[in-house]
């Protein structure tokens, strides 16, 4: 599977939720139009079980399932790829383990130079953020719209924006150069992730 060029990038919300609840939410988000899903879980109870089930759900719908931070887990469960932050595995090592077809995304925070380096090393997408206050990353340094504009001129791979993205604030990020919007709370804080995902689709039109 290839990295989608545009669309909603759903990131799991796992805290205080059962495996069944996470699976149901992700399934609903895909029905609503999520183009790619990332399994992010900072305090996993059974990461292998949940990741395995997420891979099955996502791949049955031809939606890539990306594992956050954990190259070994991505390889173990047959995920479509991995997302790497600055403290995670070396990208070349990830590529060696996961193979040429894997989707590898790299966090670039507010740095176009980091995005250029990631692209040169073979990344499939680059992510910038956080752009707005975020419950999942409250201490993350802010990123700027100007960075998206510069990145759009500098890189040819898809650009992901992340951090506190809601229906009310996502459009400026797309206008500045983001191709995909990564969303956690805006999708999964409420009781209707399918409807929330459908609502995000309107931003891309």
Task: Tell me about this structure.
By secondary structure, the protein is α/β, with parallel strands linked by helices. The chain has one domain (7-204): Aldolase class I (TIM Barrel, Alpha-Beta Barrel). The protein contains nine helices and eight strands. The chain has helices at 19-31, 47-60, 71-77, 91-98, 112-120, 145-154, 171-176, 185-188, 193-201; strands spanning 7-11, 36-39, 65-68, 81-84, 103-109, 125-128, 159-162, 180-183. The protein starts with 6 loop residues before the first strand and ends with a helix. The model has no long low-confidence stretch (mean pLDDT 95).
Précis, in short:
39% of the residues lie in helices and 18% in strands. With 205 residues, it is α/β, with parallel strands linked by helices. It has an 8-stranded parallel beta barrel with strand order 1-2-3-4-5-6-7-8, surrounded by 7 helices.
